[in-house]
Structures are given as C-alpha cells and as structure tokens.
Design a protein that fits this description.
Elements (H helix, E strand, L loop, with lengths): L14 E9 L11 E10 L2 E7 L13 E4 L4 E4 L1 E3 L11 H8 L4 H6 L4 H9 L3 H17 L2 E7 L6 H17 L3 E9 L10 H18 L5 E6 L6 H13 L4 E5 L7 H7 L4 E4 L5 H10 L2 E4 L1 H6 L8 H7 L3 E3 L13 H10 L5 H7 L2 H6 L17 E4 L6 H4 L6 E6 L2 E5 L7 E5 L1
Bound molecules: N-(iminomethyl)-L-glutamic acid and fe (iii) ion.
Length: 432
C-alpha cells in the first residue's frame, strides 16, 4: 500500500475519519509537525491503510458498509502515549505533601521512613481488587485526555511475592481496559526496611528470583531501576540490567533526578531505550545517550511538586539530537499528576520545550521510549490506528489550555472508545 492510496488491495475501507486537520507527528522536512488540511484517515483491521486529503480519498473503496466519521474540521492526532507512570499503588501521601509545603524535603521524608517506603506499606495492605479498581480509574482519567498507550511500573511491592502481585494487577488492567499498556518491572525502587544493611542480598533476590519468575509468567515487557543516592547505585542497577539483558528485556532508568549519579552514562552502557528525569545529567551523559540512541524522558510533574530548581539540559539534548519525551510520572509521592495535558503544559512552561516538541514528545518520541515506534506514535499508513480527536485547531493548543479538556474522541486500534463525558470515571460501553 502506498502513501497516497495507489494500492492494489481491492477491499473496502471499514471506517474513514474525514474532514479532519490531521497532525501526523511524522518527522517533517522543516517542521516537527506536518499537518494535512481537510484530511482523511481510512482504517482496516485496526491499522491505517490510507491517509491524505479528503478530496483524494479513493472513493471506490468506500461503500455502504464503510463507517464514516465526519470530524467537522476538528484536529486529529496520534493517540497520546504516557510512557512513565507508577499508577498502581495503595493509599496516598497528601500528608507528606503538606510537610513539604512546610519546608521538609523529599529526601528528608524518604530517609525518615516516609516516601516510597510508606506507599510500599499501604500498597502491601491493599487487596488486588482494590488496587485494580483505583488504577482503572486513573487509566480512564488519562484516556479522557487522549491517551491510547501507557506504561505502568510495578515498584511499590518490593519483595518477590508483592511485586509479582502488582505485575499481575498491571497485567489484568492491560486485559480489561481498552488501551495499550506496557508492563514494566521496576525491580530496584527503594530498599525495604527488612533488607536494611543487606543491600547486596536484596539486589540478588530481585535479580535471581523476582526477575526470572516474572518473565516466566509473561508479566514483563520492560525493566526499570531508580539510580540515585537515596535508592540504588549504578553498580547495583547494572547487575539488574545485565540480568534483564540476558532475557532480552529492554531497560529504562530513573536517572540523575536529584544529583548527577552517572545515570545517563549507565543508561547508555546498557543501550537503554530511555533515561528518565535527567535534571542533573552532564553534557557527557547527554553525549553518551545520543550515541546509544537513548531517549530523554522528562518528568516536569515531579520537578514541579518537589519545587526543584535545576531543569534538565534541554539545549544539550537538542544539540546532540537526543529525542525529547514528556510523561506524567503519575505516582502518589513526587508527582500526583494524572493528566498528560498538564505534563505537556509543564514541559513547556517549566522546562522551556516548544509546544511542538512537547507534542512530538507525547506521540512519536514517547512511542520510541517504549520501543513501539514502528507500531504507534504517528499517523501514517501501516501503523496501528490509535488516534485522538480534539476540539482544537493546532497541536500547540495541547500545551496552551489548562483545565479544559478539548478531547472529543479516543480511537484505539481503529475502535472508537465510548468514554462518558458527564461521568469522568465511567467506562460507558465497550470497544466499537
Ligand atoms: O519517578 N523516583 C522514583 N520513583 C518515583 C517517585 C515515587 C514516589 O515518590 O512514590 C518518581 O519520581
Ligand atoms: Fe518515576
């Protein structure tokens, strides 16, 4: 099938979305974003089979069985990709939020037994059914803002049985929710108190027991580790990544969030598909990431909530051609942000990304950060038909408005998802 529809396939289009302003998120010659005015997208078997100007639509492929959706001039974009979330957890940390507002730091709270460890306790004490229920509501909230793919990390279980339980929860969500979910084992997140003084043993248990068991149960797409002075060293993360590599599982890293701990270099050494946070990454770290083709996932939600001062080295990433990505980092501690549109806005206002960089950062580049660039992230022939329809004129507006939700339709694999507009948290109907 060629780009403009000169295909030899005689089958009729199953569905067509017409009269759209299509922001493809493809790599244009001059612009980051190419827009097709008065565009149309045709879909068969969940994939895009034709895209172009509505007037050029091969009309012989449209018959009475073709479902036509008139977008009436609305903006159509690739479905958004939130590539970094920790949205399966129990309880919340609003009390710590209050303490931080009074001047306590994230690190002080973490070192005195709060932080990630407190979410570990509440997560362990929450039933799987309740974790699923709460997580599904969060997923729906993201879908309402046009998210069609999201990554979910485990990480608040912190022992073999509990982490396996969280991965099962994530797996269940991926089966019941009409959205694409990438399942990440965040094996090294924080040291649980039962292992204090026995770091080596903990890393060993994660590498030798948790990882192989989780993989044998087919619960892991990616692995991640938190490389930081309050979490795990480069060497410890490296042991975990080597083990993951031996199973062929791609690696991501929480890197250089509060200090330059060589996280970007570590990511590059392991050919990580992404390094995330990166506020303190050095120029050498950026160069290493450019060489290894590692994407830079920026998480302005945690920067904002923790009132950080140092922004990631955006100009260096641009200079060396490291793809910029934005995500929510949705979690109960550092980033209680369950809104991709807010993350887009913060990426521009706080980090100085351009609205077009932000748009590409939640579509094409975010897909790459999950290793899915050949399937999703742009609107072009052959890709999966994951799309969002917006009451907007230009993708720059995704960064501009806060507190209004311009998303009108969410399409996953060619299926229109019925999300109730009146009740944010109700999945009103099924695929189709
Ligand atoms: O990405 N950095 C480590 N993990 C999360 C924070 C999790 C938490 O505070 O509960 C993050 O910021
Ligand atoms: Fe995170």
């Amino acid at each position: 099938v060629s780009e403009r529809g000169e295909d030899t396939d005689l089958s009729v289009f199953e569905s067509v979305w017409t009269n759209a302003r299509i922001a493809t998120a493809k790599d244009g010659d001059t612009d980051l974003v190419s827009i097709i005015e008065n565009g149309a997208v045709a879909i068969n078997n969940g994939r895009i089979v034709w895209i172009g100007r509505t007037k050029d639509l091969p009309i012989h492929k449209v018959d009475s069985g073709t479902v036509i959706h008139d977008c009436m001039g609305s903006l159509v974009t690739p479905g958004l990709v939130d590539c970094h979330t920790h949205l399966v957890f129990g309880g919340n940390r609003s009390r710590e939020f209050e303490l931080r507002l009074q001047g306590e730091t994230y690190e002080q709270i973490a070192r005195s037994g709060g932080g990630i460890a407190s979410t570990m306790d509440s997560t362990r004490n929450t039933s799987s059914a309740e974790l699923e229920h709460q997580a599904c509501r969060r997923v729906l909230g993201l879908m309402h803002e046009g998210v069609t793919t999201l990554e979910i990390k485990s990480g608040y279980g912190m022992d073999v049985d509990q982490e396996l339980r969280l991965l099962e929860v994530i797996n269940k969500i991926s089966k019941v929710m009409p959205v694409r979910i990438v399942r990440t084992l965040l094996g090294l997140h924080a040291l649980p108190s039962e292992f204090s003084g026995h770091r080596d043993q903990f890393v060993k248990v994660i590498c030798e027991e948790l990882l192989p068991t989780a993989i044998s149960r087919d619960l892991v797409d990616l692995v991640d580790a938190f490389c930081e002075s309050i979490a795990f060293t480069s060497e410890e993360c490296s042991r975990f990544f080597q083990k993951a590599e031996s199973f062929g599982i791609p690696v991501r890293v929480h890197a250089d969030q509060f200090s330059d701990g060589g996280g970007a270099e570590l990511a590059a050494e392991h050919s990580a598909i992404s390094a995330d946070h990166l506020e303190y990454t050095s120029e050498d770290g950026v160069i290493a990431m450019a060489r290894s083709g590692t994407a830079a996932v920026l998480l302005p939600g945690s920067f904002y909530y923790l009132k950080e001062k140092q922004i990631p080295p955006i100009d260096s990433f641009r200079k060396y051609g490291v793809p910029l990505v934005l995500a929510t980092d949705a979690n109960p501690g550092s980033s209680p942000v369950f809104s991709i549109l807010s993350a887009i806005n913060m990426g521009c206002v706080l980090f100085g990304m351009t609205p077009e960089e932000a748009f590409v950062g939640v579509t094409r580049n975010a897909a790459a950060a999950l290793g899915l660039q050949s399937e999703i992230g742009t609107l072009e022939v052959g890709k999966i038909a994951d799309m969002a329809v917006w009451e907007l004129e230009h993708p720059r507006e995704l960064a501009y408005w806060v507190g209004v939700n311009p998303c009108r339709e969410v399409i996953v694999g060619g299926d229109r998802i019925h999300l109730s507009v009146t009740d944010r948290w109700t999945l009103d109907g099924q695929k189709g």
